[in-house]
Specification:
This protein has about 280 residues and is of the alpha+beta class. It contains 13 helices and five strands. A hairpin with a 3-residue loop joins β3 and β4.
Length: about 280
C-alpha cells in the first residue's frame, strides 16, 4: 500500500526532508543550475553544504538511519530548506523523538471535557471540539446540524474525503481538501508516526487519490481564522468565518467556531436551529 510507506524507514522525519528538498530550487540559494541536473530540487550534497553538515550525515537523515539531529543541525536544515515558521517548528518537533506520540488519540481529562461541553452549549454559533488528529470529540447542537447529512462525522478529514456528497456540500472542496491534509499533518506533529494516525492516513489514502497525493507533498497549514462556503441540504448557501480557539494544556484540542459572515447566513442558521 503506497499510502503507508511514510511510516517506515525512520519516517516521518526522513520523508519530510525528502519532500521539502524537492521543493527548493538551486536558484533560490543562488546556486548554479547546470544543464545536467537529474533532480527537480536541491541535491543532497547541496542541502548538506547549505546546512553546514557532511553529505554522508544528511544522507543518513534522509534514509532514516539517523533520527536525532542536534539543534544546530536542525536550524541549518531550516535555512537550507527555506522552511517557514510552521514548517521549521514541525521539523524541530520531528527531531525531538522524546516528544513523539505513539499511542492512541490524544485525550482530554473528564472534568476539562465537561467544562468545554458546557462552553460549547452556551455558544450561539455552530461549534466543534476537535483533537490534533481532527477527531470530532464534541459539538453543540448547531455544530451537529451544520454538517447534517454527511457521514461519517467522527473525524473531520473522514468527513471531507469519505462522506458521500461532501464535494457538493463544501463549495470550495478542492482547496478545502488540500488545507485539510496540510492541517492534519501540522497538528499531528511528532505524532504523525502513531499507529492510530497511520491507520487513518492509510484509510484516506486508499479511498482518495487527492488525499494520497497531498499527504506525500508534506505541506503544512495552521489557521486561526478561515472563510468557508457551504451548501447545506436544508437551508442552502452558508458563508462562515471559522475561528480556531486554542485550548492550552489540552493535548492539542481546539474549538472550531463558525460565525455567520453575512445576514443571509445568520438567518439561515436561525432557520436551521428552529427546525431541529
Amino acid at each position: 500500500m503506497k499510502g503507508s510507506r511514510g511510516h517506515s524507514r525512520g519516517e516521518p522525519l526522513a520523508a519530510f526532508l525528502r519532500a521539502r528538498r524537492n521543493r527548493v530550487r538551486p536558484e533560490h540559494h543562488q546556486l548554479a543550475t547546470g544543464a545536467q541536473r537529474q533532480v527537480p530540487g536541491l541535491r543532497r550534497d547541496e542541502v548538506a553544504f547549505l546546512a553546514g553538515i557532511s553529505t554522508d550525515y544528511y544522507v543518513r537523515l534522509e534514509q532514516g538511519r539517523e533520527r536525532r539531529p542536534s539543534r544546530a543541525v536542525v536550524e541549518g536544515l531550516c535555512k537550507a530548506l527555506l522552511l517557514d515558521t510552521i514548517a521549521a517548528r514541525y521539523l524541530r518537533e520531528l527531531s525531538d523523538t522524546g516528544s513523539a506520540v505513539r499511542g492512541e488519540a490524544p485525550c482530554m481529562d473528564t472534568d476539562r471535557l465537561d467544562a468545554v461541553h458546557q462552553l460549547l452549549g452556551s455558544m450561539t454559533v455552530p461549534a466543534l471540539l476537535v483533537n490534533r488528529w481532527l477527531d470530532i470529540v464534541d459539538s453543540n447542537t448547531l455544530g451537529g446540524l451544520l454538517h447534517e447529512g454527511l457521514e461519517p462525522r467522527d473525524n473531520y478529514a473522514r468527513l471531507v474525503f469519505l462522506a458521500p456528497g461532501a464535494q457538493a456540500f463544501f463549495t470550495e472542496w478542492p482547496e478545502l481538501a488540500r488545507c485539510m491534509v496540510a492541517a492534519l499533518r501540522a497538528q499531528a506533529g511528532p505524532g504523525a508516526g502513531a499507529a492510530r494516525l497511520a491507520q487513518l492516513v492509510e484509510e484516506l489514502a486508499a479511498h482518495s487519490d487527492v488525499f494520497r497525493t497531498a499527504w506525500a507533498e508534506h505541506h503544512l497549514y495552521e489557521k486561526a481564522i478561515d472563510y468557508k462556503l457551504f451548501r447545506h441540504p436544508r437551508v442552502g448557501s452558508l458563508a462562515l468565518d471559522q475561528h480556531v480557539l486554542e485550548l492550552p494544556g489540552s493535548e492539542g484540542h481546539r474549538i472550531w467556531a463558525f460565525h455567520p459572515a453575512d445576514d443571509a447566513t445568520s438567518n439561515a442558521l436561525l432557520c436551521l436551529a428552529s427546525r431541529r
